[in-house]
Amino acid sequence: MNDELVSNLSQLARLINQYQKEIETIKYKLVLLAKKSKYFESINSIFGIGEFTTSIIISELGNINRFNNIKELTAYCV
Question: Residues 54, 56, 28, 45: what is their CA dihedral angle, to the nearest 10 degrees?
Answer without folding.
Answer: 0
